[in-house]
Amino acid sequence: MGCCTGRCTLIFLCALQLLAALERQIFDFLGFQWAPILGNFLQIIIVILGLFGTIQFRPRYIVVYTVWTALWVTWNVFIICFYLEVGGLSKETDLMTFNISMHRSWWREHGPGCIRRVVRPSAPGILDDYSYVSVTGCIIDFQYLEVIHSAIQILLSLIGFVYACYVISVFMEEEDSFDFIGGLDTYCYRQPPLEHVELKPVKPVNVLCLSTE
């Protein structure tokens, strides 16, 4: 295969997906978003597997990448619905942290233009180490940043899915043509079968010995 083919395009797309997943993993770690962290980890592993299969001409690995891509698109659609609060979902719940912490998206307090202020409560009866965080001046809300990240993942995954299917079909055609040529070569160089020779029994000849006495 030449360089300007679907295989090279799929390699480029896998590299982009890998970079996008690593970037997202970093910010999800900063926000302690355990569910996305787990999903990003699986995404990184499968993309590396698909990249290896594309480089090494292993269609089975690309099939695994294709199946996971469909699941990855579904997961990112769910994240979009979660942050846009579609279908009764609420971005204020602890679903992304498996209900083990109250952390939210890292972009909530560190988005573009956001000013983060720590406000100490003045009411009596509240512990001194308890504080509120006030965030103002954000150019774009954190939920839309999360939606943009998921939309980019969906776009790359859909394009990668199409090219992965194309590369799998090309690999399978090449394997079939290789087997066909190999079969012809084997047939051409095969020795012809030996002809069967019918053997007939030989009758003994009686020899008479005459005495000269």
TrEMBL record:
Q: Name one GO cellular component term.
A: plasma membrane
Specify where it is mainly localized: membrane
Any one GO BP annotation for this protein: regulation of sodium ion transport
Any single Pfam family the record assigns to this protein: NKAIN
Q: Which UniProt keywords apply?
A: Cell membrane, Membrane, Signal, Transmembrane, Transmembrane helix
Q: According to Swiss-Prot or TrEMBL, what is its membrane topology?
A: Multi-pass membrane protein
Superkingdom in the source lineage: Eukaryota
Q: Which InterPro entries match?
A: Na/K-Atpase_Interacting (IPR008516)
Identify the stretch annotated as signal peptide in this record: 1-21
PANTHER family given in the database record: SODIUM_POTASSIUM-TRANSPORTING ATPASE SUBUNIT BETA-1-INTERACTING PROTEIN 3, T-CELL LYMPHOMA BREAKPOINT-ASSOCIATED TARGET 1-RELATED
What is the protein's name according to its record? Sodium/potassium-transporting ATPase subunit beta-1-interacting protein
Species the sequence originates in = Mauremys mutica (yellowpond turtle)
